[in-house]
Amino acid sequence: MKNELKLVLLFVSLSLFFTSCDKSDDNQTPESIGLEIQDENVFTGKKDIDGHIISYKVESKEELTFNVEVTIDKNTLSASVAYGDETIDFDGNDVVLTHKQKEILLMLGEEISLFLFKDKSADNFTMAEYTLLRLLEYWAKSPSNYKYSKVKVKFPKNVMTDLKSRNEGVTCIRKNTVVTANYDDDRGDVNENILVNGDRCIGRCGSGCPGTFTIASAWTKDCLDHDRCGRVNGGSTNPFDRECGDEYFEAADDYLFGVIRGCRG
Question: Which of 38, 172, 175, 217 allows an S-S link to 197, with CB 3.0 to 4.6 Å?
Answer without folding.
Answer: 175
